[in-house]
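Exam revision sheet. Question 4 asks you to relate a sequence to its structure. Input first:
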Amino acid sequence: MKTITFTFLALVLVMLSGCNTGQKGAAPGTGQHTVQTRQAAPAKEPITDRNAVASHLENIVKSIPQVEDATCVVLGNTAIVGINVKPELDRARVDSIKYSAAEALKKDKHGVNALVTADLDMGQRIREIRNDIQMGRPIAGFAEELGDIIGRIMPQVPKDITPGGSPPPQSSTPQNFQNSGL
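Answer key, structure tokens:
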């Protein structure tokens, strides 16, 4: 028991001796103090006009080599960007271009997070959402496209819904089998 107490007391003394009451950052014996500062990232501009910001971000992405076209939708501090690249590019190169686009948008003065896709179908849907936003129907356009996306993910009708209002099929189990107690 004495060794545990002694060990604990020694550990506490070592920890307390590490707490120096001297001035931090002072050079020994010089009496001078040093000041440490942290470099802060430049302030990001607030997004007031989403259409203008989307156009600006599209131009940034279009300036990336091998990007033929880009469409952008800004939602909060996130940009959804569809890019068109040459079809003969291999997957690794397309992934590199998408990464470059996301990094360029992150470094922009608006500082958006970017979701970048090179999928043609998704790019077309982003383009349709952007057109709906420009026509003054942002919610309706987004809801329609989301419905289309869900329809592509789940095109079949669930089994519990019967087409055309026909009654559900009758059980193939005979009545006398159900009542036989088995």
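Marking note for examiners. The chain is about 45% helix and 10% strand.
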